């Protein structure tokens, strides 16, 4: 495949986010070298803004939770999303996260 511009890679990154595929599955499906896609996905994910389309996760009021107590669970989704649950997180807060 030809060398991709940053704009082209950003478009593919957005397509991957919406695809529900793993990074390797997506890279294979569009003919990209996996390590190239991993590089760009990492680059874009560090500067990613919260989507206003309603897809994916949104940051909730975490001021009273982040960095408090010990981590009970750290969940990594295939899409690259990570979720940390700290001790003391209420059942209501989890319900909102999962709805």
Write structural notes for this entry:
The protein is of the alpha+beta class. It has two domains: 1-48; 53-99, no CATH class. Helix content is 43%, strand content 11%. It contains four helices and two strands. The protein has helices at residues 6-19, 23-30, 34-46, 91-98; strands at 71-76, 82-86. Strands 1-2 form a two-stranded antiparallel sheet. Helix 1 (6-19) packs across helix 3 and helix 2 packs across helix 3 (34-46). The longest helix is centred in the first third of the chain and has 14 residues, at 6-19. The N and C termini lie far apart (40 Å).
Number of domains: 2
Strand line-up in the sheet with most strands: 1-2
- Output the radius of gyration: 16 Å
Strand fraction equals 5-15%
The overall pLDDT, averaged over residues, is 74
Unreliable segments (pLDDT under 50, ≥5 consecutive)? 48-55
Order of helices and strands: HHHEEH
Global shape: elongated
Question: Biggest sheet, open or closed, and with what strands and sense?
Answer: 2 strands, antiparallel
Portion of residues within helices? 40-55%
For the secondary structure, the number of strands is 2
């Amino acid at each position: 495949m030809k060398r991709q511009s940053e704009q082209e890679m950003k478009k593919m990154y957005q397509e991957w986010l919406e695809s529900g595929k793993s990074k390797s599955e997506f890279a294979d499906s569009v003919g990209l070298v996996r390590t190239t896609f991993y590089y760009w996905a990492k680059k874009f994910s560090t500067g990613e803004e919260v989507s206003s389309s309603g897809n994916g996760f949104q940051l909730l009021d975490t001021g009273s939770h982040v960095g408090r107590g010990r981590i009970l669970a750290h969940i990594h989704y295939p899409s690259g999303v990570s979720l940390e649950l700290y001790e003391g997180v209420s059942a209501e807060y989890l319900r909102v996260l999962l709805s």
